[in-house]
Amino acid sequence: MSGKSESKNEMTFFEVVQNRVSVRSYKPVPIQPKHLEQILEAARQAPNAGNQQSWRFLVIQEKDRLNEFRDMAWRSRKRWLLDNGYEADTDEGLKAHYDRLLGAPLHVIVLVDTVVKYRGYAEQDGALAAENIMLAARALGYGSVMITGSVSADTIRKFSRYLKGTRSAASFRLGSQILGLRGGRGDPYPNWFSTRGCQGDRGKSSKSLPNNPSN
Question: Which fold, 23-185?
Answer without folding.
Answer: NADH Oxidase (3.40.109)
